[in-house]
Amino acid sequence: MRRKPMEPAPPGRAPTAAQDAPYSDADPYPLRPNMPHTIHHQEQDAKGAFYIERNGQRLAEMTYSRTNATMIIVDHTEVDPSLGGQGVGRALLDALVQWARATGTKVVPLCPFAKAQFDKDVSLRDVLV
Predict the structure, then answer these.
(1) Pairing of strands 106-109, 57-68
(2) pLDDT in tens, the chain (129 residues)
(3) What is the reported pTM?
(4) DSSP H/E element including 112
(5) What is the C-alpha separation between 99 and 6, in angstroms, rounded?
(6) Terminal CA-to-CA distance of the chain, rounded, Å?
(7) How many CA atoms lie within 13 Å of 58's alpha carbon, on the beta-carbon side?
(8) For the chain, how are helix, strand and coil distributed in percent, rounded to 5?
(9) Which of 49, 121, 122, 56 is nearest to 92 (CA)?
């Protein structure tokens, strides 16, 4: 599958609730210390993403839509070919699951990649609706 270049990241929103603060762009998502990439989280209005950015360019992202205060739908995962084979997609999902657990958010995985990962790994399923 041919991938199009990803657009630069829009500015993240300022945290509006105490639960948002640990996951803002100002404090990159602490995950997989051996991974050379930092995972960031942004949410604005009803859309959000966990992403990796280099030089202002998004190289990987997992996007979601918020259905209500406690539920999201994971709708897309994309990883630039330059990061292929490094487990980046799974790292994005792990970051999302860690955040969902910390915030009490339930997840509906419509994205084929995310759904396949939830199907394979029982340890992630506690965040599913």
Answers:
(1) unpaired
(2) 333 444 444 444 333 333 333 333 334 444 444 567 899 999 999 999 999 999 999 999 999 999 999 999 999 999 999 999 999 999 999 999 999 999 999 999 999 999 999 999 999 999 999
(3) 0.75
(4) helix 112-120
(5) 24
(6) 30
(7) 23
(8) 30, 30, 40
(9) 49
Residue 111 structure tokens: 């994205």
Cβ–Cβ under 8 Å, residues 53 and 9: yes
Q: 55 in helix, strand or coil?
A: coil
Task: Report the C-alpha gap between 20 and 49 in whole angstroms.
Answer: 13
Q: What is the CA radius of gyration of the chain?
A: 14
Six token digits for residue 119: 């199907």
